[in-house]
């Protein structure tokens, strides 16, 4: 076979109506269809992110549950929580909030 007949053979395959329709179908399914590959890729990425968030929040729930269990065992934990997180105080008592230099925002 000569080089010219090989080129002609590929040219005939590329101009084949079934090849053209098949190629158009593949391009449509990959890029334009409602169930396109690109859409599925984005949805898969969203699923991965949601699973990571789920694991994070499960760990946070576990941590908070442990904290609540500690509070049930020791009533002084309620007072400590109120003082530290909500800056509550007893009567005739002053509260001083000390912030580290690293925690302040500079403008």
Describe what you observe in this structure:
The protein is an all-alpha fold. The chain folds into two domains: 1-33, no CATH class; 35-91. The protein has four helices and no strands. The model has no long low-confidence stretch (mean pLDDT 83).
What's the gist of this structure?
The chain is mostly helical and 107 residues long. It has 4 helices and no strands. The mean pLDDT is 83.
**Considering DSSP H and I runs of 4 or more, what fraction of the residues is helical?**
over 70%
Q: Residue-averaged pLDDT, rounded?
A: 83
Give me the strand/helix succession.
Answer: HHHH
Supply the number of helical segments: 4
Q: Could you say which structural class the secondary elements and strand pairing correspond to?
A: mainly alpha
Number of strands: 0
The amount of beta strand, in percent, is: under 5%
Number of structural domains: 2
Compute the gyration radius: what is it? 33 Å
Largest sheet: none
Head-to-tail CA distance between termini: 77 Å
Estimate the global geometry from the Cα principal axes: rod-shaped
Indicate the low-confidence ranges by residue numbers.
none
Transmembrane segments: 15-32
Organism: Profundicola chukchiensis
Protein name: Septum formation initiator family protein
Pfam families: DivIC
Question: Layout of helices and strands, plus pairs?
Answer:
Blueprint: H1 3-14, H2 17-32, H3 37-73, H4 76-86
Kindly list the characteristics that best describe this protein.
single chain; mainly alpha; 2 domains; 107 residues; 0% strand
